[in-house]
Amino acid sequence: MMAKIVLWIVVVFAVLFGLRMVNVAKARHRADLARRSGTPPAEPMVRCVRCGVFLPQADAKPTTGGYRCGDAGCGQRR
Ligand SMILES: [Zn+2]
User: Fold this and answer.
1) CATH no. for residue 77?
2) 3-class SS at 41?
3) How many domains does the chain have?
4) Both 53 and 34 in a single domain?
């Protein structure tokens, strides 16, 4: 009887621990993505010189005139 209660407590703790691990993994994954693209977690925003849209620097393409967004239609429309 007592063993069953202990087992349930263990199960509850395991679930809580699992949920926490998922959250940590998510946060770490986000940090990894930011690190891989060479930007700090607080992503600096840059402005596309062609269409004026703001986007994270990680997604922007640096050009001679400034940053450009990755939109397929950007820059081709004009
Ligand atoms: Zn653009």
Assistant:
1) 3.30.60
2) coil
3) 2
4) no
Q: What would the pLDDT profile of 16-47 be if each residue is shown by its tens digit?
A: 999 998 898 888 888 887 777 765 567 789 99
pLDDT at 5 over 50: yes
Q: What is the pLDDT at residue 46?
A: 92
Cβ-contact 67, 57 below 8 angstroms: yes
Quickly tell me which residue has 């010189």 as its tokens.
Answer: 49
Q: Which domain holds residue 12?
A: 1-41
Distance between Cα 57 and ligand 1 center (Å): 13
**In which residue are the tokens 């600096």 written?**
44
Residue whose tokens read 């977690």:
41
**How many angstroms does the Cα of residue 23 sit away from the middle of ligand 1?**
34
SS3 57: coil
pTM (2 d.p.): 0.39
